[in-house]
Amino acid sequence: MISKAFDLTNKNAVVTGSHRGLGLAIAAALAEAGANVGCHGRAADEGSCCEKIRRAGRKTFYYSGNIAERKACDGLIGKTIEEFGSIDILVNNAGLIRRTPAAEYSMEDWDEVIAVDLTAVFRLSQLAGKHMLEKGAGGKIVNIASLLSFQGGILVPAYAAAKGGVAQLTKALANEWASKGINVNAIAPGYMATDNTEALRNDPARSKQILERIPAGRWGKPEDVAGAALFLCSAASDYVHGQVLAVDGGWLAR
Prior knowledge:
It is a single chain. The protein has helices at 2-5, 21-32, 49-55, 70-84, 107-135, 157-177, 198-201, 204-213, 222-233; strands at residues 12-15, 36-41, 60-64, 89-92, 139-144, 182-189, 244-247. With 254 residues, it is α/β, with parallel strands linked by helices. It has a single domain (2-193, 221-249), classed as Rossmann fold, CATH 3.40.50. The protein has a seven-stranded parallel sheet with strand order 3-2-1-4-5-6-7, sandwiched between helices. It starts with a helix and ends in a 7-residue tail after the last strand. The mean pLDDT is 96.
């Protein structure tokens, strides 16, 4: 049955940046499909993320930390193994964006965006991938890329560079680990109604320009990404490796 291909019962997952937004929707979807899901955020308070997992009848925990720091990446993976016994699924969702003209872009902002949006994705994937390789049972790694993995954007040089790197890192890891049963893929969300796009949505002129370019005629919702994540985290995608799946309302097709 096709439904069994999407069943994540007895799988152990961790989703970075799942305190809210896209990460929260992804974490909830994985739990509804049967997975135990570890949640993560910078905030000290877990908010509603773990409660959504508990309501689905799954195990969970909350880890607070800034993954720009290596010790937080190491701690999150260690906590997942400690709580669940293994990691079968890693979703690298956490990210940040800083909007400034390139000529005025501070090196502090550059370093922070690259650390969170690219370096942490590698470190977490490296740690989870090593565990999956040692366990020998395969696994799923899903990175959250961006439309700016394909396009340059404006006023976001560090973000564009990082997300371009995420796309290439996804392919590089897939090349190494596909034969070991580890699927590494990415999702490139379009313009989503999240905190990262609040400034754009509050700018009437810019918001109008964006909506006119999206064939679907609306901003995306976190739930629009959750279904794609479930597919890439499940057995339904076992022969999918190194792909960057755009969930963009048709933006890139325009």
